[in-house]
Amino acid sequence: MGNNSTHPTAIVRIQRFNPETDAKPHMQEFEVELKPGTTVLDALHEIKTHQDGSLTFRRSCRHAICGSCAMHVNGKNELVCNAPLKERLDRHGRITIRPLPYLPILKDLVVDRSSFWEQYLRVKPWLTPPEDAPEKEFRMSPEEVAALNNAETCIMCGACYSSCQIVGLTKEYIGPHALLKAFLRVMDPRDSIPGERLADLDGTDGVYRCRTIFNCIDACPKNLNPTLAIETLRKLAQKREAFEQARIERQKHLDEPIPAR
Amino acid sequence: MRVFQMQRISAIALVVFLTIHMIVVHYPPFHIDFDQIIIRMADPLWKAIDIVFLFFVLMHALAGAWVVLTDVQRFSRLKRAFAGAAIVIGLIAFYYGTKTIIAFQPPV
Amino acid sequence: MYTSSGFISFALRRLTGVALVVYLFMHLWVIGSVNAGPEAFDARLAFVQQPLFKLLEVALLAAVVYHAIDGIRIIVVHYTGITEYRKSMFYAVLAVSTLLVIAGGVPIIRFMLEGK
Ligand code: FES
User: Fold this and answer.
1) How would CATH label the architecture of A9-111?
2) Element (H, E) at B4
3) The model scores a pTM over 0.95
4) Which of B3, B4, B73 is nearest residue A172 as measured by Cβ atoms?
């Protein structure tokens, strides 16, 4: 198509819902030009600027780091700003965009994420350093960093949370995003309350609610592994005291340099 | 013990017991009646195996049903009531099942 | 609705699980008739051994086999933490259960048709 002046078009099917006028969400089709190198988010912008200004969606950074633009595209959760439009079209040149599933829809593609944040706060997502923390930088060994499994790169987009059928069934479940964050804090050698954290997660709303469906892994745009984090937390919760003890020992050497290997 | 652990332990036990049960009871000849069952059940060891099997199967079934129900948010308030009901049903069924297993006596 | 191999396995596991719980109590009731003596037992047992029930028995076998093999898969994930082969493991579960159901079901069907 490159040197062709008229671009082919893509049919964008979007789930619309206006709480003031609609009883139920419905699908609406738009046609946009398929310019090379555009993303799904670009198509949404194109529609909002030139075709229907009432189309509502969230986005901010446009380069896959703020996590506002997670949507349900062709049955999968992903960041639309990072999804090439052309690759998402089926053989009829169509793409279907819906809001994140299992969450209350506020308008069009915008969902109410309050349960997401409530559960997030429940796991005390902040780091709790030891009281007598040295006024120096804390050091982690490469092994300790590797054990985090990149969990610190989570951007809180909600793709995993809203892909989980258990979240669909009950909002009491802490959810993969918060459990991944809890895993990050528990595994962090600088954190001084891993025992308390594990005790909090060790219930039917926490690690024991996961039914190992794996949707969270499939959905994560950052290729993180919440399922494995939950499995790890489950195992650590079994030997909580020993783990806590090991952390106390470890924190005696927080400001020491990591021995060269 | 957590329901989660109960499910895993009884699951592993059931894999063993159910394999035995399927092969011994539900395999050729396919037509069974009292006279055939009694040959095997006359042995107290088989009775013991069946009672243990019954225990695990009830545990797995009722804990599983409890999990399926309480995974639905609407029912989560009834968590305790369901657990109580499961225990009562389990005890009754275990009593009835054990009685049944023991009732397999050769007619005197 | 978020469909994936994980969801299909989960939904099937729940469905078969619920069906098996229902079956378990029916099973207890049928076998429990022995409390009323061998004759009552044989009568009720003959009732559930009519040809139609043989078809249900194949369905029962399928439910048991799938539920068991998929459960083993989940336990393997718990113990090994293997998550990268989640899809192939599920397809393997389907393949193994299909084979087992065919192996176990064909003799039952043949018995139903030929009566021996
Ligand atoms: S707009 Fe920020 S992640 Fe997509």
Assistant:
1) Roll (3.10)
2) helix B3-25
3) no
4) B73
